[in-house]
Amino acid sequence: MTTxxxxxxxxxxEDPRLLTGGGRYLDDLGSGALAAAFVRSPHAHAxxxxxxxxxxxxxDGLVAIYTWEDLPERVGRPxxxxxxxxxxxxxxxxxxxxxxxxxxxxEPVVMVVARDRYLAEDACALIEVDYEPLxxxxxxEEAVQGAQLVHEDVPGNVGAHLVQEVPNEAGRSAREAIExxxxxxxxxxxxxxxxxxxxxxxxxYARWDGSDLRVYTSTQTSTSVRMAVAAALRxxxxxxxxxxxxxxxxxxxxxVHPWPEEILVPWAAMRLxxxxxxxxxxxxxxxxxxxxxGQVQHVRVGFDDxxxxxxxxxxxxxxxxxxxxxxxxxxxxxxxxxxxxYRIGAYRVEFSAVYTNTVQVTPYRGAGRPQAVxxxxxxxxxxxxxxxxxxxxxRAANFIRPDEFPYDQGLIFQDGRPLIYDSGDxxxxxxxxxxxIGWDDFEPGRHRGIGIGCYVEGTGVGxxxxxxxxxxxxxxxxxxxxLTSQGQGHETVFAQIAATELGxxxxxxxxxxxDTRRFGYAVGTFASxxxxxxxxxxxxxxxxxxxxxxxxxxxxxxADPADLEIADGLVHVVGTPTASIPLSTVAVLANPLRYAFDxxxxxxxxxxxxxxxxxxxxxxxxxxxxxxxxxYSPIRSTFAAGMHAAIVETDPLTAAIKVLRYAVxxxxxxxxxxxxxxxxxxxxxxxxxxGALYERMVYDGHGQLLNASFMDFxxxxxxxxxxxxxxxxxxxxxxNPLGIKGAGEAGVIPVxxxxxxxxxxxxxxxxxxxxxxxxxxxxxxxxxxxxxxxT
Amino acid sequence: xxxxxxxxxxxxxxxxxxxxxxxxxxxxKVLAGGQSLIPMLNMRLAAPEHLVDINRVESLAxxxxxxxxxxxxxxxxxxxxxxxxxxxxxxxxLRLVAHPVIRNRxxxxxxxxxxxxxxxxxxxxxxxxxxxxxxxxxxxxxxxSREVTAADFFVGSMESAVQPGELAVSAYFxxxxxxxxxxxxxxxxxxxxxxxxxxxxxxxxxxxxxITAARVACVSVGxxxxxxxxxxxCERRPASSVDWAGVARAVREVTEPDDDIHASAAxxxxxxxxxxxxxxxxxARDAAGPWGSSSAGT
Amino acid sequence: xxxxREITLVVNGAARRVRVPGRRLLSDxxxxxxxxxxxxxxxxxGVCGCCTVLLxxxxxxxxxxxxxxxxxxxxxxxEGLAGADGMSAVQRAFAECHGLQCGFCTPGFLCTVTxxxxxxxxxxxxxxxxxxxxxxxxxxxxxxxxKAVHRAAELIAEET
Lengths: 791, 298, 160
Fold this sequence. Notes:
The complex is a heterotrimer.
Chain A: H1 15-19, E1 34-40, E2 46-52, E3 62-66, H2 73-76, E4 101-102, E5 108-114, H3 117-126, E6 128-133, H4 140-145, E7 158-166, H5 174-179, E8 183-191, E9 203-208, E10 213-217, H6 222-232, E11 240-243, H7 260-272, E12 276-279, H8 282-288, E13 295-303, E14 309-319, H9 329-337, E15 346-354, H10 369-387, H11 391-398, E16 407-412, E17 418-421, H12 426-437, E18 448-459, E19 465-471, E20 477-481, H13 490-502, E21 509-513, H14 530-557, E22 564-567, E23 570-573, E24 576-582, H15 583-589, E25 626-632, E26 638-650, E27 657-667, H16 674-694, E28 724-728, H17 751-763, E29 769-770, H18 774-783
Parallel strand pairs in A: 1-12, 8-29, 10-11, 14-15, 20-21, 27-28
Antiparallel strand pairs in A: 1-5, 2-4, 2-6, 3-5, 7-15, 8-13, 9-10, 9-12, 13-14, 16-17, 18-26, 19-20, 19-25, 22-23, 23-24, 26-27
Chain B: E1 7-9, H1 14-24, E2 28-31, H2 37-42, E3 50-53, E4 63-66, E5 69-73, H3 78-82, H4 88-94, H5 100-103, H6 108-114, H7 120-128, E6 131-138, E7 142-149, H8 150-153, E8 154-156, E9 159-160, E10 167-174, E11 180-188, E12 195-205, E13 211-219, E14 226-229, H9 231-234, H10 244-253, H11 265-288, E15 295-297
Chain C: E1 4-11, E2 14-21, H1 26-33, E3 52-55, E4 58-61, E5 74-76, H2 89-96, H3 106-119, H4 125-131, H5 143-159
Parallel strand pairs in C: 1-5
Antiparallel strand pairs in C: 1-2, 3-4, 3-5
Helix pairs in contact in C: 2-5
């Protein structure tokens, strides 16, 4: 049996549970808990004048009704602004329940607790809230005009404004470099809103026993929810435990915390002395969880005859919705990741994050990168079109060369650290992609087109993650890490790492994530960081345990630790297979005992003769037990990359758009489990196709979300997703022990750019706004009756 | 998203069902497949005091195929009717109705009563000149029923001729005449979604394969299915020499689609012409084939 | 006090009696009254397919079905798909082909595919797509689900 499992397509260890109905998602827990429901604002912007609950009081099974007035001071405060930034001069967050003013449809106003959810909803329907409607601000343009304000004290609706400039080698600014260029282009691009939309919504379930609080929440960060809950409820941290159970998808929306419900449900459970659970329904998810993507970009670029960019100047208007709990991470990522695999002569990027009376904006898989890549790749296509050059040639002319790593882009990334790419091979990646899709053999025709998109993705951002590894006296290995899982297969890939590091069969390894009872220090799962951060932390922890195991085994075998190796759970002397000791015995010996609780344990008791009478049983600086804990904290992010291409066909009459082929070349460093990485890419591309051709959040002028259901928010079914062809390049990261980079978000990032380029190629019409529907393509055709394919 | 409370009635036979319906009148709703009603209840967009669940009335679970047409009882599920050989257009239409799992539960008659202007089955009924049988309990006369033709049945968007206290017990879909072919073409955003526009067509040929009759019924381009007789425009020509552009124009002239979040009115108007041409050509091909090859798609 | 009715459901082969009000959705009845939480609820308006169960053998949306309506019926949920000798061919194929990630939509797919392959043991790509076209998955991009359906068909053919 091999234990060298790193790099193997090992089948997932979580699957048997999930395939047989044995998964435990949030709403599967707490069968006896009271149910919470919320009265949410039907107005995009209104003053709350009065709440009349009298009609609801007769509902059988009603337990409690709470408004903001009922909340104690610490609970009723505005929710935390999680990531402050000097440029976010006017950061604003919501109150857990609306105080005076509601700023988007769906904002919670009243909390109801009842015997079950049906009854709680009955009560909600009977509560009358008297609103004084205020004029809402909807859409980026209206926000920028500033005639109406989302927050009275935020002038012009601008929450943040940030300019970043990188001069060229000669010290010239982007604007100077553009003016001095032989060719310039300027244009506007638009990307509309979408959302993470996991199939399991959010949910919180809390139990209070009079001194200890246990909270289960469908989150991407249980450790940070724990600290937020302890602070808001004034509880000592050791008395609060937070557990992320099986989570039915996250994609970013569940990294935001604490959500109002994550404070209110535990608070209500404490106040009522009963278990309380809230399970978000789909309508709530649409109107009260987070959205992303909405941006307007104004681009000006200067370039030479070869298509080499001399200067790029981008101004971004970012729709931040009503609040900024997650700071300005999304526009920062757009601004910095826009540069992609290219060395741009001089760069200037400016963004304004504006408030609107819509659902708040926080990261959704890709987190600002799809917009960034749309901008840069549309720019490359436009340069190629202008010069009459092949689009891949223009890209190649601007690539960072393999010998230029580490490459400093001169910007500050989302982790507050320099944007320095660690490794990559972009020319090779382009060569592979062109071969995979058959770029050079593609015959353009009317209504058939090909598109390409390249990106670089900063993954594995800090500050840190940790891992704990314990080998117990039954020979089993227990691995835990604090970050959470939402389907990425962490139980498998972390076990693969541990199996490889420790030489233990994977069947004997179990992995726990997202449970603060097992591991209290963590950041969370986002930014394609879990494998990089926890993977390396677990590897380091395993190495500590291995070292200790070899030391103890060396004593027992009277050998030199350097001559020992571990295979199949057995420590043995290299070249002498008979001289061996199982890890289970090593674990026993690691823990000097007084009491023999079983036969195996007798080996470690005080009369067994195992320990030297001249030394303390536990040496100074040592600890009992065969376990280890370590942390991985990188100097900065590691940079994965990818390139996608697609061939699309459009119907000449119905304007239907069909993706005929979709090809991906991807580099996330060393692959831990290629099967899982491919799965991540497939899923990402599918979300990207959704964002390019189907999904958008349609608000009317009153701030009503018109498509808040799966009937009208068009997530693709199997019938809308093309077959995805993949190839991998492995450029190891020099920054971490395992040489890995993140893969979680990759698939989604360039898809809108790729599809826009392919449609443009098929139709000969410039595509500057995504997503695009057949109806919109039809409109564009009518505006450009003489359109011809670009060749 | 939990339904509001209601009184649930589970009549065992038609008489009992009509009895309850007569008693609850406008405060009641009929539950058959529930695939449109229950989402509305879960979203609390509808809150009937009484729900008359007819799923136990076995006499309504009928499906009668006769040479002149099919009579579909109120409890016949889409999937059952879809499997029915002998009425190709119904099958073509049903394959476009939502997804297989929804069709396992949803009923044909329920879909007609729901009268969604984007739904396929009302268009089929309208195209073929079918009818719906409505029954009610009269205090004096006992069970009385009336047959309402498609033209009178679809009153407006989401509004049928069914009156409070009445139950739609069956629908009758006539078989198209000899040497006829049918087709259903539609464009939906996703497979199984309601159509942005759709057209079903029936074309009848003579022995020389010339078109003697041609009609379409259009979906999603008006409050009710829009039936257009284009037989005259085909001028008794074979399909290959019909002025299809003229036919498309004629169809567009009588339809008045609206904008919505998925498509503009102009696009729908354009589509309905394109689809009319495609559906009519398919139907003509179907009619020319010895066994009728019946097609559906975009 | 809402009127309740006693109904009997034969779930995964066992008769279960339960008292429910008329508005109790079958999905909630299975999950919260009978404790069979493997059936998931993703939208409660019949679009996502997470709640799909087999009702007298046919896949239906349990969120668009009232428990009282199906009094006396046989229901199979994901908990009832495995046999005495372990996971069904469909379940094993999903594991083998990495046809699931977060697992939330999976029970609905498994029920749908179980019925699909019973009725059509060797479906074409198009038939597979049509068969599972009413189930949303946000994680996998469907490619490995389609692969798993074909693989399950192979396994069933090999094992019978």
